[in-house]
Amino acid sequence: MEKKFNHKPILEEVTKKGNTKYVVSFLLVVLGYGSYLFLQGPILIVFLILAMLGTLLIFNIPSKWVEDSFSKLSYRFKISSAITGGFFLAIASSAPEFFTATSGVVYYKIFSIGFDTIIWSAIFNLCVIIGVGTFYKDPILVRKSILFRDFPSMGIAIVLLLVLALDGVYSTVDFIILICTYFIYVWFLSLDKSKSYKPTKSAFSWRIIALKLFFGIVLIALLAHLMVATGQETINLFEQFYGYALPVGVLACTIYGPGTSIADLFMSLAAIRKGEQTAGVVNGISSNTFDLTICIGVPGLAYTFLTGKDILINVYDSLLMIFMLLLSYVLVFFVLRNGKVTIREGIFLLGYFLSCIIVYLVHIF
User: Fold this and answer.
1) Which among 10, 124, 148, 171 could disulfide-bond with 261, CB atoms 3.0 to 4.6 Å apart, if both were Cys?
2) 3-state class of 340 per DSSP?
3) What pLDDT was estimated at residue 253?
4) How far apart are CA 218 and CA 239, in angstroms?
5) How many CB atoms lie within 10 A of CB 308?
6) 138: burial class by Cβ within 10 Å (0-12, 13-18, 19+)?
7) Please, what's the largest Cα pairwise distance for the chain?
8) Is 290 exposed, middle or buried (0-12, 13-18, 19+ CB in 10 A)?
């Protein structure tokens, strides 16, 4: 019998064996924000960074609630595995990116917070999730069918972002194109006649599902806004103490992007450990399609409606990030084409991700 969600305090859930990382995350958050009370000067920046890292690790808790809720709903209504994985579970794993972008455009009117974060999250999903996975299973064996169903949609999204960025402007029409592209992808998934998705645990309760879904989404939204607010405060303090305006891209490639993908990483590694190696790889790919279309398109559309203006972008910075993402996409395609990923290839992908960060930081500085 599945344990009741509301019969056990959250603190007890996160302190049981195997969840020590959540206790550490909570302590980092308390330590980071508590530093406001007794610290001044540049050291405060260090503690704010620790607070952001703690916040990002906590993302995995509500993401699991949302994932579990959608899994059970899909099973109850006999929704195919293709739709469940490509749509519902993509929402669960991409919620941190979506609310990060939404917070950036709605509260701070800064589109690049979400855009840069999502591009780096996508590179992380492709390179780091697969790369780290090879340390758990060498080699990772995957079905080649993912190269023909899940992979092309992501490639189309990357090319669209690249083409739409060439004029240096993202317009309302551009964002509508991105959103429509994703729903065309979902329509193709609906043609898949695979069996309905079956979660590991089949116990079903409307009350538990509603609570997990509601509090999961609300908590993800609050954590995302807290992370963005802390990042903006870090940028302000950096300028105050050092007289230099720290680019948003620095936080995006080092903290926001990798951090919002932590939930994806944990989900994929859990699947790989259970022997579901293809599912572990597909998780990162399918969520990227959602990120690059919906998580950029919806907040971007909200920005153009709120401001009444198109979004001017830094062409060189944006094209550099998109080209690095495109290259990572090509590399992963060639890695997966034989149906397996060795630890040597995994290390190569991890090295590529690190080199992307170095190249980008050198470029913006």
Assistant:
1) 124
2) strand
3) 93
4) 32
5) 8
6) middle
7) 60
8) buried
Note the pLDDT of residue 8.
41
On whether the CB atoms of residues 321 and 120 are closer than 8 A, the answer is yes
Q: Which residue in 94, 143, 62 sits closest to 337, CA to CA?
A: 143
What are the CA-CA distances from residue 310 to residues 101, 170, 177, 244, 300 (Å)? 16, 6, 14, 28, 9
**Token duo for residue 308:** 């009444």
Output the pLDDT for position 273. 79
User: Quick check: 310 and 164 in contact, CB under 8 A?
Assistant: no
For 129, the token pair is 């999730």
Among 328, 223, 322, residue whose Cα is nearest residue 284: 328
Query: Tens digits of per-residue pLDDT, 234-266?
Result: 999 888 888 888 899 999 999 999 988 887 888
8 Å CB contact between 260 and 96: yes
pLDDT score recorded for residue 13: 41
φ, ψ dihedrals at 278, nearest 5°: -65, -45
* Beta-carbon contacts of residue 24 (< 8 Å; ≥ 6 apart): 54, 57
Query: Could you tell me the two tokens for 191?
Result: 């043609």
Residue in the block written with tokens 């402007």: 169
Cβ(135)–Cβ(270) below 8 Å = no
Q: How many CA atoms lie within 13 A of 142 on its CB side?
A: 32
* Interatomic CA distance for residues 189 and 82, integer angstroms: 6
Q: Which structural domains are found in the chain, ordered by start?
A: 5-193+203-364 (1.20.1420.30)
Residues of the chain with pLDDT under 70: 1-19, 21-22, 36-37, 39, 80-82, 85-86, 192-204
The single-letter DSSP state of residue 80 is B
Query: What φ, ψ does residue 230 adopt, rounded to 5°?
Result: -65, -40
Q: Quote the CA–CA distance of 61 and 91 in Å, as a whole number.
A: 15
| Lookup result for tokens 């989404």 | 217
Give whole-number Cα distances, 220 to 46, 57, 125, 212, 349, in Å: 24, 11, 19, 12, 29
